[in-house]
Amino acid sequence: MYPTKRRVVITGVGAVTPVGNTMTETWNGIIEGKKTVGKVEIFDAEKFSCNFAYQVRDFKLDQTGLSEKPELREKSKFLNRAGEFGWNASIEAAKQAGILSTFNNNPLKTAVCLGVGVGSPELSWHKEVYMTEKYEGHETNPYHRKYFPNTLSTLVASLIGAKGATSTIHTACASSGQALGEAYEMVACGDYDVVMTGGADSMVNPFQMAGFCLLGALSSRVSDPKSASRPFDADRDGFVLGEGACMFVFEEYEHAKKRGANIIGEICGYGVTESAYRITDLHPEGRGVIESMEMALKDAGISPDQVGYINAHGTSTLLNDKVESLAISKVFPKDSSKAKVSSTKSTTGHLISAAGALEFAVAMMSLKYQVYPPSVNLKKQDPGCDVTLTPSEPSPMNSAYALSNSVGFGGSNTSLVARRV
Amino acid sequence: MSKTLNNKPNDIVITGLGMLTATGLGMDANLEAFDAPANKKNQEDYKVKGFNPAPHLSDRKVVKVVSHRDVLGLVAFEECLKNSGVSSQTINPDRTGLYVGAPPSSCSDHHNYEEGISAATDSSGVLHEKNFGETFRTASPTTLLTGLPNNVLCYGAKTLDARGPNSNYTTLETSSHMALIGAIRSMKLGRLDCAIAGGYTAHSDKIFVSAMKMRGYAECTPIAEGAAFATLEQRSVAEKRGAKAICQVLSCAAASDAIGPYGKIDETSIFPELIMNTLNHAGVSAEDVEVLMVTGSAIPDVTAIEKSAVSKVWKNKKSPVVATTATRWGNLMEAGGLAEIGFLKNAYSKKEIPATAVADEWKDTKSAKEFNPSNTVAMILRTSPYGEYSCLIVKMEGP
């Protein structure tokens, strides 16, 4: 039994995304509506029905911590592409929070909880090694090392000296939203004082792009990729893959205050449900998404009319945007709610397992700067998506609360509430 | 400022178990193995083969769209529901959730693309990546979904109509315990009355076994296929529907030395401290523990760290009987950690710990013959080669 729930504040945030290799660059890129989508450069995707994506560019693995700890440097070789993004974002967050190296007087009260993608071996490796079973001489095979999702979690724990649980969550596109929610509960309930949390993913690879193409989930607007990701637009035709990572340091309020940490935001509500419906489809009436938002609001102890901004999951697929709009309009009726909605996937693409973390960061930053992120690429709002969208340019906001939704294949739904500090 | 939480009592009990391994379906079939000579000779024997899942699944069509490992998980999940008498008719959907320990995706998930890969390869054996952009279309439209690590969570929730809080963890041998910890947290927060927690695994595909050999682990406990789930309920909810508790969950916690791949664990390991903290949370002492179930992977590093932690915690104290189910079930990886409850139930019922459950490496501890079934406190440890640890303490209840 937990007698009281503690306040959970954010003392560090870091990001590596298609719009910037730091949180500041990412936030500025989102506000500017920067369009970084382009042809896939990581592999030859020319003949795919969707051959474009939002990709991380000019990326270099941050060597912080690696030079002092040779064993960490060795292990960092086991990070896959998404893992490297996660590593850099973790260092940025940890530096901002001031918890690198000098921190950790109580390692068992410090934990890591990440939402990490499934990873994938290279096509040539699969053909030459896996299909032929020629393993000898391939001691660094990717299945064994690089594609275990808990590799990143354990290395991040090592980076900050955490010895509490290292939790790795996978619930598809809800993964990092769920990781943030669980990290929040871990601190709020008193199990931990500090938790590094977030998500990392890259599905921009042949196997997984093929998988999404086969499902018909990706936009095929090859003639105009820059406007392909257009959540809530009447002419949307699917999502556009993105990649990246976003990491946070969640900390108990008194703990943060006592050590003089800079508090940049607060997480105060978490909702999580299962739609228990179909693997790829949302329940047509928004079941699960509605309850998730209601649970988060109840947990935060606020009413819907106190929320000023909703960062929607908003994938730009026909079904998601329609059903999510329906769910939002039920919880936040237009006649009584001032909440404006946007999906920043129009600027970042869909970061899959990392999406929830990045979009919560956007919600938090929008409160910090009191700015609504713009609805980029919106030409004509789908009348079936009856929510109040943010304008196409950044606009001033006056609110203390924002909410971020994530919805995953498999039916997991999460909602997180951020409070302005 | 802090908020007062739901002040419900948190007497959480386990009311049912489901299990599927190469040995059989259901707890009884698996427990019989401890009364018989070992009959598995090699890795292949630990694979679940020749098993027809259809009669055991509510939705038989699911077999066509998920992986072999998912099928194992779903069968054990449904077996758990039957064993505990839980169904969509008995639960409150919004206050029931699934917490699952899942294995990572596997290379075998890309099997459907192999025709496309071959078609993109020229006569001299050179793969033209560009051509794969056309040839992959020979794969089934649902190929991506086959490899999702949360399929069991999804289809299980649909089967039970469980719509409450849920999660899906991938932390190797500690996965099932991580699932249990998540479920307990949600129950303590007053969000759930009932949770189904457990894990499933099928690392025995060719690449993983090969990798184990390359690490010099050829002599370790074979990697097994299987799944195990447990039904957790608030005691008041279980009593209301007339369900009997197998055990009470006193405490469960996890920690990590964060060594990651290929790390070495040294004497500064956090593992003993985790065990001590979990004992404190449970309100019991080390000497109160009658049976200690260990991972029993026989991976040298893992056994060494478990032995070191146990020797530190029980130094100069009356030690428990140390047993492992790995001697008969193999290393159940993500599926291990809760199936042991079935083993304990059987041991307490028969007032005997089978000698076949004592691994060679642990024969220097208290003899199984000294087992005192009147002391009902038991501990289950899980250790992963990544330096992740978990500890579950239960109090067994009468047959």
Structure explained in plain terms:
The complex is a heterodimer of chains A (421) and B (399). By secondary structure, chain A is an alpha/beta fold. Helices cover 30% and strands 19% of the residues of chain A. The longest helix of chain A is centred in the first third of the chain and has 17 residues, at 81-97. The model of chain A has no long low-confidence stretch (mean pLDDT 93). In chain B, β10 (377-383) and β11 (388-396) form a beta hairpin. Chain B has three domains: 12-107 and 143-240, Thiolase/Chalcone synthase (Peroxisomal Thiolase, Chain A, domain 1), CATH 3.40.47.10; 108-138, no CATH class; 251-396, Peroxisomal Thiolase, Chain A, domain 1, CATH 3.40.47.10. With 399 residues, chain B is an alpha/beta fold. A ten-stranded mixed β-sheet of chain B has the order 4-3-5-6-2-7-11-10-8-9, with helices on both faces. At the A-B interface, β1, α2, α4, α5 and β6 of A face β1, α3, α4, α5 and α6 of B.
Q: Topology, pairings included?
A:
The complex is a heterodimer of chains A (421) and B (399).
Chain A: E1 4-5, E2 8-16, H1 23-32, E3 38-39, E4 52-53, H2 70-75, H3 81-97, E5 110-116, H4 123-130, H5 150-160, E6 166-169, H6 175-188, E7 194-202, H7 206-215, E8 243-252, H8 253-258, E9 265-274, H9 289-300, E10 307-311, H10 318-331, E11 340-342, H11 345-348, H12 355-369, E12 371-372, E13 395-396, E14 401-407, E15 412-419
Parallel strand pairs in A: 5-6, 5-7, 10-11, 10-14
Antiparallel strand pairs in A: 2-8, 2-9, 3-4, 7-8, 9-15, 12-13, 14-15
Helix pairs in contact in A: 3-5, 6-12, 9-10
Chain B: E1 3-4, E2 12-21, H1 27-31, H2 68-84, E3 96-101, H3 114-119, H4 129-135, H5 143-146, H6 151-160, E4 167-169, H7 175-188, E5 194-202, H8 206-214, E6 225-234, H9 235-240, E7 247-256, H10 271-282, E8 291-293, H11 300-313, E9 321-323, H12 326-329, H13 339-350, E10 377-383, E11 388-396
Parallel strand pairs in B: 3-4, 3-5, 8-9, 8-10
Antiparallel strand pairs in B: 2-6, 2-7, 5-6, 7-11, 10-11
Helix pairs in contact in B: 2-6, 10-11
